[in-house]
């Protein structure tokens, strides 16, 4: 089980687009039908971790026992939550340098849920991201889900519910976090950053405000756009080595990280395909940003291009797998890009 620290667990927080999920939780609590297992699902960047942290704090809050579900922030339980030392809260995520949540972590957690509460109230466990449990870990949850201990709550947080076994999903009550409208997201970003929000940044993140806020800091979005164009431009012009570029993209401390690079590549390749189908000669880049990409072949194999898009998406979905040889997978992807969009073989000699 990952060590619980104040820095590793987000502070309890309700964001504007969490309203429907909060209403669902409060209605169930008021009717004494609060579920013993919740599948908290939604896209990345919507603050599911913050919402899960709030749900835990509210369930454990001393004022919730005699009233509506809330996080008062003042009682002894809430003070322990803030200090990261509440003995009845268990937060499970992948251990350091691991990609998956192990069966040993889940067994330790379920063992704690069967014990008596230290503060004579609820015991709450969070598994996040739940889709990164190993198959054995997910299966070990079944008994806890089928025979829950009284006054215990399990919250599974995921952006990929399909990555969980159906037997696990069916035993949880689903709570969906829906994204905000574009207008709501732009206003929230403006308030959080103190600057005007970039609509293109929201488009890039799939209207995920927390991801947009992260990329807006220190000009990271512009750096990503410039860096991707430069590296791909050099690759397609024959001035860059595939192996070296793959190593650069896979650097763990690189900013931006590989998932953002793959998202950018996905959007760019898709725009190339659409422009080719429509006969457009527009520059394939984000508007109002300087292009650095060379001219692409006049005749493109659209089917092959979409096959590369599929390869990008497959790699992105596989990044959490422990056995994935990331650098080799990136090399394979870059070779595919070069084969479809690069110069003819004779021109590469």
Automatic annotation (TrEMBL):
<dbReference type="GO" id="GO:0008408">
    <property type="term" value="F:3'-5' exonuclease activity"/>
</dbReference>
<keyword id="KW-0239">DNA-directed DNA polymerase</keyword>
<keyword id="KW-0235">DNA replication</keyword>
<feature type="domain" description="DNA polymerase III delta subunit C-terminal">
    <location>
        <begin position="235"/>
        <end position="335"/>
    </location>
</feature>
<keyword id="KW-0548">Nucleotidyltransferase</keyword>
<dbReference type="Pfam" id="PF13177">
    <property type="entry name" value="DNA_pol3_delta2"/>
</dbReference>
<keyword id="KW-0808">Transferase</keyword>
<dbReference type="InterPro" id="IPR027417">
    <property type="entry name" value="P-loop_NTPase"/>
</dbReference>
<dbReference type="GO" id="GO:0003887">
    <property type="term" value="F:DNA-directed DNA polymerase activity"/>
</dbReference>
<protein>
    <recommendedName>
        <fullName>DNA polymerase III subunit delta'</fullName>
        <ecNumber>2.7.7.7</ecNumber>
    </recommendedName>
</protein>
<dbReference type="GO" id="GO:0003677">
    <property type="term" value="F:DNA binding"/>
</dbReference>
<dbReference type="InterPro" id="IPR004622">
    <property type="entry name" value="DNA_pol_HolB"/>
</dbReference>
<dbReference type="GO" id="GO:0006261">
    <property type="term" value="P:DNA-templated DNA replication"/>
</dbReference>
<dbReference type="InterPro" id="IPR015199">
    <property type="entry name" value="DNA_pol_III_delta_C"/>
</dbReference>
<dbReference type="InterPro" id="IPR050238">
    <property type="entry name" value="DNA_Rep/Repair_Clamp_Loader"/>
</dbReference>
<dbReference type="GO" id="GO:0009360">
    <property type="term" value="C:DNA polymerase III complex"/>
</dbReference>
<dbReference type="Pfam" id="PF09115">
    <property type="entry name" value="DNApol3-delta_C"/>
</dbReference>
